[in-house]
Amino acid sequence: MYRMVDLIEKKKNNNALTKEEIEFVVNGYTKGEIPDYQMSAMLMAVYFCGMDSNELLILTKAMRDSGDVLDLSGIDGVKVDKHSTGGVGDKTSLVLIPIVAACGVPVAKMSGRGLGHTGGTIDKLECFEGFDVNLDAHAFFEQVKRYKMAITGQSGNLAPADKLLYALRDVTGTVNHIALIASSIMSKKLAAGCDAIVLDVTWGSGAFMKTKEQAEQLAKCMVEIGKAAGKETVAVISNMNEPLGYTVGNAVEVQEAIEALKGNGPQDLMEIVFSLAIEMILLAKLATDRKDARRQIDEAIKSGAAFEKLRQLVTIQKGSDTAINNPDELPQAKHRIPLYSKKTGYISKCDALQVGLVSMKLGGGRKSKTDCIDLAVGVTLCKKINDYVKEGDVLAYIHSNYEKNEDILCELESAYEVSDFPTNEEPLIYKIIS
């Protein structure tokens, strides 16, 4: 039997913990045998001293094994999961999953709800009235087996150690640490039972990682964990300095995703979708090379197969599909208010974080996990970086259920900068780590 105080001292002195010691800490805390104050001290020791790759793999596996681990081996084919580290206007999963499922990739996706300025796939899917976001393990398994796709909220007993540790990190200032972030994400992905994982790791103003160097460090860490755990893992590092696509919110993003599956998606959104889809198809061993994978993607969209897969996803999870053909059936805000440009020139900045915060303040996001959100509200952008505008042109619209919106319009205005000349943009896809 170990003493927690001795293990805290060991890590505080920058010594590596053994497999048995890490499992003692994770299991003891999950069972309530180790108090918050001691676990807080251990997290702080890890925050300042870090973990080597072996410790990190052991920690991730211990968190994975703290609860249920799904067995998807009864489903034919290579099951591929996708995870995003978060962003603004990130409706990627709504477009991506129907496309790759139409190409034959089995996707068993557990998604979360939005928190703060970042949106959640589960919230967006609830824009379809009746959509069941709480599939049990059997229904989840059978749906992927039959239809090649399922999206559900995280199981109540999937990596429970992560839920407890994340809540503690949130109140002890230990959230922003590469090893702790990587183990949190990957413990859930490994517990979800897929054979391969594609990670969309974002960087920039609207992302958790503010620089591409931080994002690359996190991506490499997660890819190493995945491969060491026997899962083929690829990370695509993408730019989140401006919102993805032209919509930020819930219903407005769903509408944009529907249009994207009809072949009318914004260039930046589709570039991310194509990049992730190619990696998923290759990991599923359904294409000979990237060119072949892209051909399959284009055909899935052009033929309407991907669009029909979205309809199928909604209907088999008990949602109403009327909004797929008639977007006016989606939740609608009472007011659609324009923001006008006060200058003529080129958009040099459309700050993703600021736009995301505006959507949150309208009611489209959560300040805490228990907050209810308004699915109808959000922001529609009319101009993005390097677009030319004239004084008086509409920069964006807010979709609001408030009577007074002057302060919110001012906050949205602060997201934009207009310059005399176009700016040099960072590429959308920075790097692929495999």
UniProtKB/TrEMBL annotation:
Keyword Cell division set for record: no
Gene Ontology annotations of biological process type: pyrimidine nucleobase metabolic process; pyrimidine nucleoside metabolic process
Annotated EC: 2.4.2.2
GO CC terms in record: cytosol
PROSITE patterns: THYMID_PHOSPHORYLASE
Keywords attached to this entry: Glycosyltransferase, Transferase
Pfam family, one: Glycos_trans_3N
Domain Pyrimidine nucleoside phosphorylase C-terminal intervals: 346-419
Record GO terms (molecular function): 1,4-alpha-oligoglucan phosphorylase activity; thymidine phosphorylase activity
Catalytic activity: 2'-deoxyuridine + phosphate = 2-deoxy-alpha-D-ribose 1-phosphate + uracil; thymidine + phosphate = 2-deoxy-alpha-D-ribose 1-phosphate + thymine; uridine + phosphate = alpha-D-ribose 1-phosphate + uracil
Leading EC class: transferase
Subunit comment: Homodimer.
Function according to Swiss-Prot or TrEMBL: Catalyzes phosphorolysis of the pyrimidine nucleosides uridine, thymidine and 2'-deoxyuridine with the formation of the corresponding pyrimidine base and ribose-1-phosphate.
Family indicated by similarity: Belongs to the thymidine/pyrimidine-nucleoside phosphorylase family.
Protein name: Pyrimidine-nucleoside phosphorylase
Source species: Eubacterium oxidoreducens
